[in-house]
Structures are given as structure tokens and as C-alpha cells.
Amino acid sequence: MAISSIPLAETGKSDRRAPRSVGAGGLGGAAAARPKQPAAQDPAVVRWGLTVLALGLLGLFIVLPLAAVFVQAFSKGVAVYLAAVREPDTLSAIKLSLLAAGIAVPLNLVFGVAAAWAVTKFRFRGRNVLVSLIDIPFAVSPVVAGLIYVLVFGAQGWLGDWLSAHDIRIVFAVPGIVLATIFVTFPFVARELIPLMESQGTEEEEAALVLGASGWQMFYKITLPNIKWGLLYGVVLCTARALGEFGAVSVVSGHIRGETNTLPLHVEILYNDYNYAGAFAVASLLSVVAVVTLALKKFLEWKTGQESK
Amino acid sequence: MLTPFKRPSVLPGFWPAFSYTALYLTVIVLIPLSAVFLKAVSSSWEHLWKAISAPNVVASYRLSFGASLVAGLISVVVGFLVAWVLVRYEFPGKALADALVDLPFALPTAVAGIALTSLYTENGWVGRYLTPLGIKVAFTPLGVVVALTFIGLPFVVRSVQPVLADADRELEEAAASLGATRRQIFWRVILPIVRPALFTGFALALARALGEYGSVIFISGNLPMKTEITPLLIVSKLEQYDYAGATAIAAVMLIASFALLLGVNALQRRTRRFMETE
């Protein structure tokens, strides 16, 4: 389900940490004796104890796996790492992953903008149903996402006879991988834009039209600047997921080395071959993408925070 | 009286945007997804029932659901603690810790899977301390729980964080000034405010965990009847060209996750109404 179910703006923290001595302090007596500490402020022992515990758990659950990827990747030395990364099968996996993302992301970007425009700027019957339907791919197991394309395009599928008669391969070939990638990344851009554009309303666009702007002028000069950071964030999430998708792509790929292997599938193959250093070397490339994604997210949050000031 | 389909508006582009949205949604999502149900219905009930009630399939439901539930509960406790610390306290490296919470969203599941496996095998960084205690994680149901907790944690943190940040501190101060103990403030003031968000985070984590594949299959070891999750059975049926069997199990999973999604939506709508009437 939703990687991006939490809109960007909501994660920004409101500034309520300033100590307020009015509440308890005004009652005089005992409370006035400690004016600097609000009554509901936790004692230092509790504060630090909980902080250390939370950071420890974050470290155990989240930082340790990330660290393990890089340590294992270089466990046999830099030479082995570079060899694994430069291997022809790895390079063709990189190419295929980039191809799938390169097709899926622009398509879902156009869809996301169109869907958000229709859903947030207009009121029509069935609007809520449409919004819920857009979310479906988040609720579907990646494995099922792959299966549905096998059922439609596979040898025994709906279009199987027609496709084989015309010698077109979709499942167990590149088009299937692209389709599965489009499916799993389908809602990302729309999910980011819908709450954002909903909150912006329609006044600015209406003003532009009243002042004589054409439809496209209004879109490029008003709507696009308003949504650019949210849009970019959606694209970042969409790209990260497109490069990293495993389950859906695994079902439709057929695992032909050098042909239908994406990066995550190549990780699995190397791992199952007991080539751990190689598997983690390729995994480290994907981990770098993940870390860059997190950094971009922070940057975009900061940027939206700045602009709303 | 028949209400019009769309309320009038001066803004352009409704029909192109709406038609494109509907068309793209139908072609990419709705038609392929309907294939599951049509295919499942096209085989006989007997065959269908046999496919979804075979002993190894039932064992996989038990594991998938049980492990998702346990992982969701762990995520709720740990996620609340992390959200609390991130919202209420100041400490060095806070921005970094906040960014890292999203790592499970961004890290490809296969990468998470092999990384967790390497940590929890008998001589892994964590496993070597657990083995002497007689605790085996990798290739046991416990490993499945660990992987699903990794996946579920950010859902809870990101659901609770904004609610906690917006919660009115004056309520707690009022409670304290009226003589409430810290424990009473927690149970009677803070928890009721964040409870809907905790539920939402839990449900989102659960829904994601039920369908999760990549991060689980490495650490689970996929032992028949013991550590096979339901999505894995779909894959292995496909590998044996048993499309009808795979589809039947997929239909069960789809119905379960749609029910969960509807539940989450209803919950969020109720919460929103509750917040608005405040």
C-alpha cells in the first residue's frame, strides 16, 4: 500500500515546543516554584531514556539493515565489488530498470496531473469513487499485480492466442515488465497532487482566466508553479519504486539473464547463486537510490516549508 | 429531479482530463484486475474451494495473517515511541532520524530482504547474539515478523506524527494543573487523541504486510507448511503453470485487502468528521 499516503505538507512539524509557563504557573504556589518547566513537560530522565530507546530501535530496525548492505557489498574487497557492478548482466539489468522507470514515470506523471486536475478542480458525481479507485494499486499485493498481466497477456490468457498468432510477446518479456512497473507506481503522483491541489482551491486559476489567459497559459503560469514541489516529490517516489519493484516484476519477467532481469531481480539471482558479495554489491546501487530519495524528500519538504512562509 | 453529472465551472479541461483519467485507469488497473475474478469464477466451485483450502494454503493464511498482525502491533508500539520522541523532544541528529524513518518505503524490498537475512542468520550481526539464547529468527516465522515490522514501522510513525504535532499541549497542562498524574495524562489525554491515527497506521501496515513478498521470502526460508507466506504460494503455483490455483488464492487476497482498505477509509472519514466537529 501507500508509500506516499502521507502528504508532504503534513509531515512538517508545527512549532509548539516553546515552553508555556502560563497554564500551570498562573495557579501560584507550588507551580510558581518551577516557572521554566511547564507542568506537562517530561523530566530529563524520561526524555533522554525514551530518546535513547527510540533511536536504539530505529538503529536496530532500520539503520542496521542499510549498513549491512554496504558492509557485505565490500566484504570481499573493492575489486570484487567493481567486478560485480561492471558485469554485463548487471549492466543490462541497470539498462532494463532505467527503461522501465523511464516509461512508467512519465506516463504516471501525465496521468497524475490529469487525474488531480479533474478530481480537485471540479465537482462531479462519483468523484470520491474515482479517488478511491486510483488508490487500488497500493492495496494489491505486488505478486497479484504481476499475476493480472499474466492472466491477460500470458499464453493461456485472454489475448494469448491472438498475441502468439502475431508473434508478440508481452509476458516474460520487456513489455510485461514495463506494464507491471506502471501498475505498481500508478498512484504515486496523483496521491501527492490531490491533497495539495485540493487545498489550493480554484480562485487563482479563475482569476487568470478572467484576466484573459488561455487554458494552457493558466496551467503553465498558475497551476504548475503552485504544484511543482509536490509534483517533483511524487516523481521522486514514483522513480524510486519503479527502480526497486520486485514482486510484480518477478512474476512477469521469466528471469532471463541479460534480457528480462531488472536490478532487484538480478540481486535475487546472484543471492540464490550464493554469490553474496555480488548480490550485495548490486543491492548497494539500489540502496544509494533509496538514500538519495530520502535526501530529496527532506529537501523538498524544506523547500515547501520555505515557500509557505 | 436528475442532478447534473458535473457542477458548472469556468475552468477548462474537465472532459479531456476526466476522460484520460478514466481510460488510463480502466486499461491499466480495472480490466487486468477484473481478470482475476473472471478467471476465478470460470473454474468450478469445487476446484476453486480445493485450491483455496488446501492444507499448505491454509497454513500460509495463518502465517501471513498472524505474522502481519504481530508485526503490526510491534509497529504500533515502536512507531508511537519514535513519533513521540521526534515530535516532543529535541536532540542532536533529529532531522537525520526523521529522514531515516522513511527508509523502508524507499529501499527496494529485495534489498531489505537479503539485508535482514544476513543480519539474523546464526552468525549475522544480530543473530550471533540471539543464537546462544536459543532464539532463531532467520528461516522461522519470527523472521517473517521481523521483515514485516521493518515494512510496517513507517506507516505508524507517519500516521501518528502529524496528529501528535497538532495536539493541543494546553490540554495536558490543564490536566496536570488539575492534579492528574503523568500516567493519567498519558492514558486519558494523549492516547485518546492519537488513537485513531494509531489505528490507521496499524491498518495500513497490516494491509501492506499481508501482500508483502520481496522482503519476506529471503528471511523466511520458504519451508513448506512452516514458513510459506500466501503471496509465495501464488508464485509457486504460477511456476507450476497452475493458473487457476494461483488465481483463486489471489482472489482471496484481493478480497481481504479491499475489505481492509474500505475499513481504513471509513475510519479516516470518521476521524475527519470527529476532528471537524471538535
SSE blueprint and pairings:
The complex is a heterodimer of chains A (309) and B (278).
Chain A: H1 22-25, H2 29-32, H3 44-73, H4 78-86, H5 88-121, H6 127-134, H7 136-139, H8 142-153, H9 160-165, H10 174-185, H11 188-200, H12 203-210, H13 215-244, H14 247-253, H15 263-272, H16 276-308
Helix pairs in contact in A: 3-16, 4-16, 5-10, 5-11, 5-13, 8-10, 8-14, 10-13, 10-14, 11-13, 12-13, 13-16, 15-16
Chain B: H1 14-42, H2 45-53, H3 55-88, H4 94-100, H5 103-106, H6 109-120, H7 127-130, H8 141-166, H9 169-177, H10 182-211, H11 214-220, H12 230-239, H13 243-277
Helix pairs in contact in B: 1-13, 2-13, 3-8, 3-10, 6-11, 8-10, 8-11, 9-10, 10-13, 12-13
Shape of chain A: globular
Amino- and carboxy-terminal Cα gap of chain B = 35 Å
Quaternary state of the chains: heterodimer
- Category from helices, strands and their pairing of chain A: mainly alpha
Structural class of chain B: mainly alpha
Tell me the distance between the termini of chain A. Answer: 32 Å
Helix and strand run of chain A: HHHHHHHHHHHHHHHH
- Quick one: biggest sheet of chain A? none
Helix share bin of chain B: over 70%
Mean pLDDT metric of chain B:
91
